[in-house]
Amino acid sequence: MLLDLALRKKFSGMTAATVAAALALAPMAPLRAQENKGPPILRDTEAEALLREYTRPILRAAGLEKQNIQIVIINDGAFNAFVADGRRIFVNYGAIMQSETPNQLIGVLAHETGHLAGGHLAKLREQLARAQTQMIIAMLLGAGAIAAGAARGSGGSGLADAGAAALAGPGEMIRRSLLSYQRQQEENADRAGVKFLTATGQSARGMYDTFRRFTSESLFAARGADPYLQSHPMPADRVAALEEIARASPYWDKKDDPALQLRHDMMRAKISAFMERQDTVYRRFPLSNTSLPARYARAITTYLHGDLNSALAQIDGLIQAQPNNAYFYELRGQALLEGGRPNEAVAPLHKALALSNNAPLIEMLLGQALVATDNKAHTDEAITILRAAVSRETEAPLGFSQLAMAYGKKGDYAEADLASAQAAYLRGDNKTARELASRAKTRFAVGTPGWVKADDIVTAKPLPGSKSN
Ligand SMILES: [Zn+2]
Q1: Contact indicator for 338, 6 with CB cutoff of 8 Å
Q2: Mean pLDDT of 398-422
Q3: How far does the centroid of ligand 1 lie from the alpha carbon of residue 199, in Å?
């Protein structure tokens, strides 16, 4: 559902903070500038569920299943994937779009899991700290040499030249030693990734195909133009080493399960429809293509571009083809809700919720529809559903802002202020969050749970990356 404009805006809060933290900690994984391109993170139940399925066995093989590692989809069409904080694997939607098979994407995720399992981030940070110290020492030595050269009088003094060289040199030397260190980590992550894939009965061919593609593309592409290449230098010998261990696996020739391939194609069709221009979507999925993914993409782009009735007819066709697909009902509900028909959105969203095992993002959408109906009888149900959603999806502002509206309708202004404050806090708007939380405190009795929560916000430290005012 993420992908609609309004929801995207509402989901952007946590995510700005998350990405700011990632940027700060990811010297080996440069992110492209994200300005004015919508929210940094994309949220979608269908895609997230599939990526979790891709990653779960790998994490288990890596001994990381207890760490609750999340997969976060970044709103960037370039190919990239990286780890930044030991708790999340970040993957650009571009990497999903460019992975034609589940196995290719799983290979990239296995490689990133290799970084996590190897504790590479902590080691890299250590290495960077050491490099910084080396740099300072080298600068001091260089400056000393220049001073010594100057003291002997100029006239092409060799020592002065050596000093200048030392000043220019250490950065480059240290950069190179970091690069070779990073290359070593990449090879270790490759090896670990292949090990995890083999341990889970999967082929490493997709990982190899993807990385080889980058080697051959780097021959043509301007050096360093691609973010994945910047963070993942791929010299031919690395790819050759990967090929050797990948081919040694008994699963090298294993193909993706067709049902999984279909879900993969559905995810990519959805991302295309929500993220790409309409003419691009129709070029990828022309009317002559009657596959389910193509029909999915066209139904989404039709609703996004305002033809609700045609979109609903197309969605009904999809539901006929797969009557138990939660995401078709979710799409139907979302299209109706955004088309200004919230009363009709409630039933399909209930169905989507039941079929998705109560996915919290769908709960938020249903809560939003219930609030939008202007039917007072729906308000209590909205509050119950939204409370359930925010208890599990604690970082999405949408759940709290809808909860605030529901409480407002009931005339419970204390809870409404508190929920608004929570939404503002998650959006990174600390000033508004503090103001609303202070007002909420005056509405609750001192020491009640609501008062304590409001007080927490008043005294909370801002989320990293949020506005400092
Ligand atoms: Zn890597």
Answers
A1: yes
A2: 95
A3: 20
